[in-house]
Amino acid sequence: xxxxxxxxxxxxxxxxxxxxxxxxxxxxxxxxxxxxxxxxxxxxxxxxxxxxxxxxxxxxxxxxxxxxxxxxxxxxxxxxxxxxxxxxxxxxxxxxxxxxxxxxxxxxxxxxxxxxxxxxxxxxxxxxxxxxxxxxxxxxxxxxxxxxxxxxxxxxxxxxxxxxxxxxxxxxxxxxxxxxxxxxxxxxxxxxxxxxxxxxxxxxxxxxxxxxxxxxxxxxxxxxxxxxxxxxxxxxxxxxxxxxxxxxxxxxxxxxxxxxxxxx
Length: 264
Prior knowledge:
By secondary structure, the chain is of the alpha/beta class. It is built from 9 helices and 10 strands. The strands form 2 sheets. Strands 2-1-3-10-4-8-6-7 form an 8-stranded mixed sheet, sandwiched between helices. Strands 5-9 form a two-stranded parallel ribbon.
C-alpha cells in the first residue's frame, strides 16, 4: 500500500519527532547520572547526614558525591566561587550571608537557595569534673554576652567561665548567635576560637572551666557532659545551591531528605 506524499510526510515528521524526544530524554538521563557533585561545608551536616547516609543518598539519587567537610561559611564561599556544586550549612543562611557581605561584598548572594534536610541542636559541653548540668537560655545568653563570667552564677564552684567555639564561620556558634543574640556576635571577652570541632572538644576535655558550644553528635561520641537548657538551641541543616538546583542536585536533595526521614 502506497502512502500519498502528504500522508508520507506527516508520518515521517511524527517519526522524527519521536526520535528527537527519545534522544532528549536519554541525554537528560545521562546528564543526571553522570554529573559528579561536590558538597562542601558544615561538619555538623556531614556528621548528621553524610557520614551515616552517603551511600544511601548516592544509590537513591544515582549520583557520585564528593564531600569536603570544613565549615558552613567556607562551604558557601566555595559554592559562590564555583568550587562546589552545593554547600552544607548548619546555621541560618541569612545569618551567614549577612556576615559574608561585610567581608566579601559584591558576590551573587541573592541567588543562594537553602533546602532544609534535617535538624539537630547545639550542645553546651563541660569538663567531666564540672558539676553544672543545667542552665536557662537566658543564662547562656548572658554567658555569650559576658554578663555572666563565673561558674558560681550557674550554681557551680567559683571560677571564671572560659567560652570556646569554632571560629571563622562555624555553624554551631552562628546558630546560637542567631537564636540567642538576634544574630549579633559573641561579646564575651573571655572566648577562645578554635579551627575545628575536634579541637573544640579537646579543649573542653583538658580544661575544667571551659564551656564549649559544640556539635551534639561529636559531644555524644566523646561522652562529654552537657549543660542542658530549658529550651534547646535548634540548628537547621540545609543544602544550598546557587540558583535553582539542577536535576542531579534535586535528586541528591530528595534522597537526603528521604534517608533522614526514615530515622525520625
